[in-house]
Amino acid sequence: MEPSLRAAPAALSSLIPPEATKQMRILVVEDDREAAAYLTRGLKESGHIVDHAPDGQDGLHLAMGGNYDVAVVDRMMPRLDGLSMVRRMREEGNRTPVLFLSALGEVDDRVKGLRAGGDDYLAKPYAFAELLARIDALIRRNGSETVQTKLAVGDLELDLLSRTATRSAQKIDLQPREFLLLEYLMKHAGQVVTRTMLLENVWEYHFDPQTNVIDVHISRLRAKIDKGFTDPLLHTIRGAGYSLRAIA
Amino acid sequence: MRLLDVFRTATFRLAFAYLCLFAVSVLVLLGFIYWSIAGKMATQSDETINAEVQGLAEQYKRRLLPGLRAIIIERSSRLGQRTLYLLTSFDGTPLAGNLSQWPPDAKATAQNWINFTYIRGPEDDRETRPGRAVQVVLQGGFKLLVGRDVSEVNAVETTIRSTLLWALAITGFFGVAGGVWISRNVIRRLEVINRTSREIMSGDLTRRIPVQGNRDELDDLAKNLNEMLEQIERLMMGMREVADNIAHDLRTPLNRLRNKLEGAMIGNTSREETVQALESAIGEADGLISTFNSLLLIAEAETGAHRDTLELVDLNEIVRDIADLYTPAAEDRGISFKLLAASRVMVRGNRSLLARAAANLVENALKYTPEGGAVTVSTFIARDDDRPAFSVRDTGPGIPEDDRERVLDRFVRLERSRNTPGSGLGLSLVAAVARMHDATIALEDAKPGLLATLSFPRVETVLAPSIAAQARRVLPAPTKAQRAREPETQG
Fold first, then answer.
1. Taking a contact as any Cβ pair under 8 Å apart, which residues of chain B between 251 and 280 contact chain A?
2. B205 lies in a domain?
3. What's the pTM value of the predicted model, to 2 decimals?
4. Of the candidates B393, B367, B370, which has an alpha carbon nearest to the alpha carbon of residue B380?
């Protein structure tokens, strides 16, 4: 078994890059008591403020009232299911980013979730690191709405218009897919990006390959952007994924 | 089987109904025979009498009473005379004839006709015999009786009647007995079928219904049932195999998971060791999840849940993306990865499932191809039937011919790959996706290695269900010409 997304909540704080531990207000809407307790504890340990609602009705109340940075919503719940809850939120003009967390994990279910107004979809069972990375990505995306044409991390620069990459003014030759990969990593600079997130966003696949294909792509990209430089930018986060950041 | 039960069976009822019909027709036939023979004899006798009366009447006209009398006397005395004559005066005194007196028990039937009995024979051996005659009253009250002994006619009638009754009785007897016998025979064979079915239902699936070998309907029934049983047994074996494999492929990692968790809990393990054990346990759980996801996906593809979401897709795009994803990994292992794409290979399909199937084939190829080998992915339109297709060829050990169909089943892993990682679901997922797309999957010897080809129905044709059935079989190897069609230079 390749080292995939594994993490025990106790070791979570070690997974999170320092800037990501900024305190967030997170709403957890989940009817399963144990799953909710685990989620709440894990998120709290990661330094966030967590509220829990046991069903969609309460969840809707809390979501409309509290000013949350992100909501994690189960789909099948008593009283009001997750899809309806998020639909109602969007109808009322609430733009809180929503991550669906559901046992219904097929492609169709994912599409339904996103159509109902969800921003991301994670199938149960999930790795906590995966969830954390996705929550993080959602919160940051919500912050920067402006369209960027240039991305920069440390001395690495990516021009989205001319499709060129340079590091310390040295041009880097990238294959089209490598460019997309780097673009995604740079847009999420400083965050943890999991292999599944890369597979979904760069290749648009929703399955886990049995072989370590993503790792090979990353190591090739790493060879291009980090080789010959003293400060590596592309870091492997053990048990979670990768993170592109300049260490000051 | 008791006799009473025989009467209750459908076969007997059928035989009985047939018997009744048969009896009625026999009755009609015998009745007709009786009527025609007996009737003929009686008519003949009556006609003879009529003719006689006619003759006498002429004599009477010419020679009057004395002449008539003379003729009667003359005729009555003829040896072996079977005609009865009697001429009497008005007071009943016999004047001539072979009857001693006017019969006292004469019963008139039709006009002038009478039936009667008379006594004949010598003094010591008299017998009463039946007769039939015409009586004529002449001028002066004289009466003439001309008749015949009808004992023979009566005897024949009686004989025929009793013969007919016997025939009817015998017919009835043999009919019933035959009915019982036939139904018993049929019932015995049906009973064999029933008994065998019961035994099979109670669990002994290896039992088969005996076939007599005389090619009748019951043999056909037995053969069909046997074929059905064969199929059921195959399915049951398949299910048992799947169950066994699930037991092995899900229980084994579950057991390892449990062991690891327990190991982390007990004994004097350091914190680091504990974390290590837990991580490895999570690894097991991830493996289980992936097996489980594959099973769900296979079930989903097999129930055809995605059928309504099929859209026009270019196989090239799918294969190119998969090649893009896997090429670096292949090169890292010292395997050259080649893509031979035709210009445009459109199929009606589900993009993500097709990608998944292609990925599984490629992963399978990468897993078995040794360093220095090559994996080639091609898309093409088959020359012989214009079907769009894609194939994955490797230079690994290939799959022995006997196992090619089996590897498409769930959880089947050939012995040699038992120890390599994988759930044994990769190819069965490909097979399920193929079935969902009405595509055929062919596994062939690439000499060396394995050539797996998925051929899809042409886009303009409606998805034909018959193709889906074909997808369940591994197709025979294509001709050399067809293989040569795959483009060798592009990509």
1. 275, 278-279
2. no
3. 0.59
4. B393
